[in-house]
Design a protein that fits this description.
The chain has one domain. The protein is 57% helix and 5% strand. It has 8 helices and 4 strands. The chain has a two-stranded parallel sheet. Strands 2-3 form a two-stranded antiparallel ribbon. Helix 2 packs antiparallel against helix 4, helix 4 packs antiparallel against helix 5 and helix 5 packs antiparallel against helix 6. The longest helix has 26 residues. The relative contact order is 0.12.
Length: 275
């Protein structure tokens, strides 16, 4: 009996042959489908929140546009500037080739913070009000994205003897594709799903009117706290991390956790939202 799981799932769902008119050469991948699910389900949940609180749906459409742009641009720039700045700064055109892979969740987080600040100013809604709601769907989105990483056989962990270790047969580097490894994509996906459920519970318990900053603070502390500890068993994403006591993901997580603690302390001094 095997004491590990052989993961040989291909990242492509299907491909259209090159000779097919108009759509020839098209490849649909699991990652793209799951990434799209993050926005689709996020929109559905935010639609229910907006209806509950009497906010015009048109504003949600604007919010969705800001979210899509800020997530994609932030995640791409985060990867390029945090993990491989020398290469991308000397080859700036490569930054645009998002289809070749390379997205960073910390960059997406920064992109969301900036994009939603602009949205709040243009739509005259309190910034903290938006952040308290959007973190609910961002947590769910993180679940879908990490499951996409699993389908791509990427962002996994160190060698393990645990019975749920995964052998990622389709990983591009053979030296990493033979030993059972921690499926850290699943660890993170489940932690994000847990955070989604916790934030939903807090929102419902307060009948859609949580104390300002509470959901945002809980999200920052839990998500980036879990991310910090899971990083200890991940393989390095780039070469320079091999010489670091804490990797780049951990260093980037620390300020977010501290910001979450400050936000929770600030939230305790705020009045509850009027119902």
């Amino acid at each position: 009996m095997l004491n590990y799981i052989v993961w040989a799932v291909k990242p492509e769902i299907f491909s259209v042959p090159d000779d097919v008119w108009l759509v020839g050469g098209l490849t649909v991948r699991w990652y793209g489908l799951l990434f799209a699910c993050a926005f689709i389900f996020g929109y559905i949940i935010m639609q229910r929140i907006f209806k509950k609180e009497g906010i015009p749906i048109k504003m949600l459409d604007d919010l969705t546009t800001y979210m899509v742009i800020s997530v994609i641009v932030g995640a791409r720039l985060g990867h390029c500037l945090f993990y491989e700045p020398a290469y991308y700064l000397s080859h700036p055109v490569e930054i645009l080739k998002i289809w070749e892979g390379g997205l960073a969740s910390h960059g997406a987080s920064i992109g969301i913070l900036i994009g939603l600040y602009i949205f709040s100013r243009r739509n005259h809604k309190p910034y903290i009000w938006i952040m308290d709601r959007i973190v609910i769907v961002v947590a769910l989105g993180g679940f879908f994205v990490r499951m996409g990483n699993l389908m791509n056989s990427e962002i996994f962990g160190d060698i393990t003897t645990l019975p749920w270790g995964f052998v990622f047969e389709n990983y591009y580097d053979p030296q990493y594709a033979t030993d059972p490894r921690h499926p850290t994509q699943i660890y993170e996906a489940l932690s994000y799903l847990f955070i989604f459920l916790i934030t939903c519970l807090i929102y419902r318990k307060n009948d859609g009117h949580p104390r300002p900053g509470k959901l945002f603070g809980v999200f920052l502390v839990l998500l980036f706290g879990m991310r910090f500890f899971i990083e200890f068993i991940k393989i390095p994403q780039v070469g320079f991390e091999e010489q670091m006591t804490l990797n780049m993901g951990q260093w980037l997580s620390i300020p977010f956790v501290l910001a979450g603690v400050i936000m929770l302390l600030w939230s305790q001094k705020q009045k509850e939202e009027p119902k």
